[in-house]
Amino acid sequence: MSTSHNNPILSAVSALVEPKADSSPADNAVTGHDHVRTHAHEGVKPTFMVQAVNLLAVVVPFIGFIVAAVLLWGIGFSWLHLSLMVAMYLLSAVGITIGYHRLFTHRAFETSRTLKAVFAILGSMAVEGPLLKWVAMHRRHHQHSDEEHDPHSPHLHGEGLWGVVTGLFHAHVGWIFDRDPANLERYVGDLSKDKVLNYISRTFPLWVLVGLLIPTILGGLISMTWTGALLGLVWGGFARIFLVHHVTWSINSVCHLWGSKDFESHDESRNNFIFGVLAMGEGWHNNHHAFPTSARHGLKWWQFDASYYIIAGMERVGLASKVRLPSEQTMAAKAIKSAAS
Ligand SMILES: [Zn+2]
Ligand SMILES: [Zn+2]
Question: How much is the pLDDT for 33?
Answer without folding.
Answer: 47
